[in-house]
Amino acid sequence: MSYPVHRGRRLRRSEGLRSVMRESRLTADQLVAPLFVHDDGSARQPIASLPGHARLSPELAADEAASLAALGIGSVLLFGIPRAKDADGSGAWAEDGPVPRAIRAIKRRAPGLVVWADVCLCEYTDHGHCGVLCDGAVDNDASLPLLARAAVTYAHAGADVVAPSDMMDGRVAAIRVALDRAGASETVIVSYAVKYASAFYGPFREAAGSTPRAGDRRGYQMDPGNVREALREAHADIEEGADALIVKPGLPYLDVLRAVRGEVRVPVAAYQVSGEYAMLHAAAERGWLDLERSMWETTLGLRRAGADLVISYFARPLAERMSEGRMIAEAGR
Ligand code: PBG
Fold first, then answer.
1. In a domain, 20, yes or no
2. Domain for residue 102, yes or no?
3. In this structure, which residue's CA is closest to atom 5 in ligand 1?
4. What values do phi and psi take at 96, rounded to 5?
5. Which of the residues 8, 109, 256, 290 has the least number of beta carbons within 10 Å of its own beta carbon?
6. CA of 213 to the centre of ligand 1 (A)
7. Residue 37 CB partners (closer than 8 Å, separation 6+)
8. What is the count of structural domains for the chain?
């Protein structure tokens, strides 16, 4: 009597076999590359806590987008860094603001690239909150028309996708109605339905100058202990008209991603946020881990947990390796 002792080992014998038998994989068109766009001259302003990333002028953002598209990357996600901020965040819907200018420039340079515009007020308000304030507290309902106005501005500039990240209740419905009324019924809404109040947004807030001047975001972003609430948020946003959802951050919330993926029938994107990127870079700089392998392993983990799309600051290096024919195999080396 002989026993089948080899099991999976037989399938791991060569990279050819491992590659053919792999359950989850990551392709360039599944990647969404975040870009920061400023309107303060033409310079490239490096972001210290996001190595390899910079605030770009609309023209430089279009160059970068064209080069990402040439690598096969499917989408870019635009964040605006305005020169001037005010209490209402009026720069968010300025037609000549950094994001509408970048959208128009990217659509000229790389018409096939899917352009996502993040919709939020925090980069545009002088107090740094994601909605307007009333007596020092964020006023949910007063913020909705402003978010909707920003979304319409980006849609009219040519954005394929608007992605509200403010976490106000009811903003998906408000944005859908406003888009439809403005003749932008084809514009897709990808909602940050499940966004936790996280320590991992630190480098982003440095890049965007959007750290709240007083208080924090726990009044509108989700509590890290909750997963049932994530499902409720996901269902509510779909009912309001969201076409796809984002779960954010990535690595500390893989269980949430898995639960959301099992619960809904729309595409789900995972956002590997700025602090996740910065943490891997910082450890690699000290020689404590291998950046190449960890970028593959973490992004593949998001796919395995159920993400259809991966928003990541590693989009460019990942796609570059893919174009050189080096794939996920790097993770298991
Ligand atoms: C809010 C927004 C944030 C991020 C994306 N959209 C910051 C926040 O909620 O404070 C963070 C993304 C990242 O950390 O990479 N407009």
1. no
2. yes
3. 165
4. -105, 20
5. 8
6. 16
7. 55, 56, 57, 58, 61, 78, 79, 80, 81, 98, 99, 101, 102
8. 1
Angstrom distance (rounded) from CA 61 to CA 36: 8
Q: Considering the domain boundaries, does residue 5 fall inside one?
A: no
Note the pLDDT tens digit of each residue in 177-227. 999 999 999 999 999 999 999 999 999 998 988 888 888 889 889 999 999
Chain centroid to CA 152: 19
Q: What is the pLDDT of residues 270-317, one digit of tens each?
A: 999 999 999 999 999 999 999 999 999 999 999 999 999 999 999 999
Global confidence as pTM:
0.96
Range of the domain at 158: 25-331
Assess whether 248 carries a catalytic annotation.
yes
Please indicate whether residue 165, judged by its CB atom, sits closer than 6 Å to ligand 1.
yes
Which ligand 1 atom is the nearest neighbour of the CA of 273?
A: 15
pLDDT digit string (tens) for 307-320? 999 999 999 999 99
Let me know if residue 6 belongs to a domain. Answer: no
Q: Which CATH number does the domain housing residue 226 bear?
A: 3.20.20.70
